[in-house]
Automatic annotation (TrEMBL):
Transmembrane segments: none annotated. Pfam families: Cupin_2. It comes from Geochorda subterranea. This is Cupin domain-containing protein. PANTHER family: H2HPP ISOMERASE. Residues 35-97 form the Cupin type-2 domain.
Length: 112
C-alpha cells in the first residue's frame, strides 16, 4: 500500500530498549518514517544505531546530545544523527516529531 495516514495508525513502542517514545511507523525497503510522541522529561537514553536518522520537530522541545555536541531543538528544527554515533534525546516538554531512519544492511529499527 503506497499511502499511509500516520495520525490514524496504531502507536507502538519506538526502540523500547532505548526509548520511552511511542508512535506510528511505516517501514519501506530502505527507509523508516515514524510520527513519534515523547512525554515531557522522558528520553531516548544514550546509545548508537547502525542507521542514519533525521528527526523533524513538529511540537515541543527536545534537548539532543550528538556525540559531545548539545543543543535544544524547537518546532521546525531538524536533528541529524549519523550512523554509529552516540546520542541521546530528552523531551523538555511533551513533543511530537517525525523520524526518518535509513535501514543499514537491510536491518530496520530495534523492534526487529
Amino acid at each position: 500500500m503506497p499511502f499511509y495516514d500516520l495520525t490514524k495508525m496504531a502507536h507502538v513502542a519506538i526502540g523500547p530498549q532505548q526509548s520511552a517514545a511511542r508512535g506510528a511507523v511505516v517501514q519501506g525497503q530502505n527507509l523508516e518514517v515514524a510520527l513519534v510522541r515523547y512525554e515531557a522529561h522522558r528520553a531516548a537514553k544514550s546509545h548508537r544505531d547502525s542507521n542514519e536518522q533525521m528527526i523533524f520537530v513538529l511540537e515541543g522541545r527536545l534537548r539532543a546530545r550528538i556525540e559531545y555536541e548539545v543543543a535544544v531543538a524547537d518546532p521546525g528544527d531538524i536533528i541529524h544523527i549519523p550512523a554509529n554515533v552516540e546520542y541521546e534525546l530528552v523531551a523538555i516538554e511533551d513533543a511530537e516529531v517525525i523520524s526518518f531512519k535509513s535501514h543499514a544492511a537491510g536491518r530496520g529499527s530495534p523492534r526487529e
